[in-house]
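Let's sit down with a protein and look at its sequence and fold side by side. Go ahead whenever you are ready, and we will take it from there.
>
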Amino acid sequence: MPKNYTKDLIRKEFINLLNKKQLHNITVTELAKQCKIERKTFYYHYENLTQLVKEIFDEELEIVIEEFNETLSWEESFILGAKFILNNKKLVKHIYESDYRIDLEKYIFSISGEIMRKYVRRVGQTTKAQEVDMKLIAYFYQCALSSALIQWVATDMKTDPKAITRRIGELMDGNILLSLKRSEKLEKFTQNFEIE
């Protein structure tokens, strides 16, 4: 699918603006001026800034899905998956402090979920773990990782998330495989467990 130059330009300039100022201070008029396009051109591509924010998160999530590397640990996969956040700390803080916080939190939860579901499934191939337990384990780690990252954003991003993630990995090393092996010995779980 060919890239749309104007949409890419709007996205790039919006990210630049959002790295400099809070979201409620950015207008379509200012963004159009920054892009050297007319306001109606912006509205040709997007209904409003909300749609643009959601599209950025959707596209970044697609990148995380495409770039997932089967050979990496969950820690390294998570760090790689969070690179947009780590490279755009001011943008993320500005979105967190705006009416779009829920979109940011959903994006972080989705990143964590993609990574943990794929990682647990890969490790689970060496076991006879129950399918429902693989989902529960991935969901548990998804919740923990996304909560930790959201809390990091909420507390002004002062610590090094890469160091913290690696440290958590060292502390929890082997626990996912152990949990999957325990699943083999547990009674069949009959409750339906579906998460998105």
The CA atoms of residues 94 and 194 lie 33 Å apart. The two ends are 27 Å apart (CA to CA).
